[in-house]
Amino acid sequence: MRALVMLVMALPLLAGARTPADTPRAPAAPTERVVTLFQGATDTAVALGLAPVGVVESWIERPMYHYLRAKLTDVRYLGLETQPDLEGIALLHPDLIVGARNRHTLIAPLLSRIAPTVIAEELYDFKALLRLMARATGREARAARLLQHWRRRVTDFRTKMARRLGERWPPTVSVVSFRSNHARIYYGGFARTVLDELGFRRPAAQQHAGWGIKLTSQESIPAMDAEAIFVFMVASDPAVMDTYRKWTRHPLWQQLKATRNQAVFRVDPVIWNMGGGYLAANRMLDALYAHYGLSPLGADPDCASC
Questions:
Q1: Rounded to whole angstroms, how far apart are CA atoms 291 and 282?
Q2: Residue 301 burial class via C-beta count within 10 angstroms: exposed 0-12, middle 13-18, buried 19 and up
Q3: Between the CA of residue 95 and those of 73, 105, 190, what are the distances in Å?
Q4: For residue 233, which of 255, 265, 205, 256 has the smallest C-alpha distance?
Q5: DSSP state, 272?
Q6: Largest interatomic CA distance in the chain
Q7: Which of the four pLDDT bands, split at 50, 70 and 90, describes residue 83?
Q8: Residue 303 confidence class, pLDDT cut points 50, 70, 90
Q9: Cβ contact 77:35 at 8 Å
Q10: Among 21, 190, 267, 302, which residue carries the largest CB count within 10 Å?
């Protein structure tokens, strides 16, 4: 591995190869051999009709989230997002590598010597990621169709929610996660971005920049207060579930508006937090249709096989 990395670093940049800072353009020939180095990129590749030749492992449900496995039957796993297997990437001879700013900035120059590389800046904006990867792979038309259908679904959901809730639309909602030794409120992130687009409001106390806040004391439970709370966690972790039980049995939790109104919803952490792409966003929207007892506008026929 070390010898290969040193060899690749010693190579001059390939003539015409795209550096991570460049704006991706549609390739002269179809891009088929794509390597994705974070979960949102893997989701997005599948939505665009690509079958990546190499992906990093998922954080849970290893080696890959269940909702993507059917389209990743012939793929090489390249370690974790935080330490991808550079030798494995090189041996795949990819046409394109897709990385993330928060994970791969330091190794981006090395990746670009293996193959043209794009680095996603806005990790929680699944639409921007879809456009970025569509430009890099020559699939702009497909991306445009997917985004058009997404907008139709958003309009449909907001219309039906307004009819269902009347003057109570739009409600304030909190996005909360439990970990082994603390809880989190998300001011930003994937789920919050989708909820904002769907029309839900943030509680006044949560209208801050940044990803959110860690809560280490149960005395901070009132900061979660909203008309509805969406909770995700890794339920297979005993320590996480112990935290969840302790916090949700606390008297302050019982006083929250969402608790009193039976509007606390446990949701899938993969779809609401880890998937990070177009397909996950649509599955999240499906879950919201179901939570509120609404008839969903179906998935895009162009993505029926995604």
A1: 14
A2: exposed
A3: 19, 19, 28
A4: 265
A5: I
A6: 65
A7: very high
A8: low
A9: no
A10: 190
Q: How far, in Å, CA of 75 to CA of 55, rounded? A: 7
What pTM was estimated for this model as a whole? 0.89
For tokens 């008297």, the residue is 251
In sequence order, the 6+-apart residues with CB closer than 8 A to the CB of 37 are 56, 78, 81, 84, 97, 98, 99, 100, 103, 104
Q: What is the DSSP string of 144-194?
A: HHHHHHHHHHHHHHHHHHHHHHGGGPSPBEEEEEE-SS-EEEESSSHHHHH
Q: Which residue has the tokens 């177009």?
A: 278
Interior angle at CA 101, CA 90 and CA 49, nearest 5: 60
212: helix, strand or coil: strand
- Are 126 and 44 in contact, with CB atoms under 8 Å apart? yes
Condensed to tens digits (0 to 9), the pLDDT of residues 236-263 reads 999 999 999 999 999 999 999 999 999 9
Token representation of residue 27: 């390739």
Provide the 10 A C-beta neighbour count for residue 124: 17
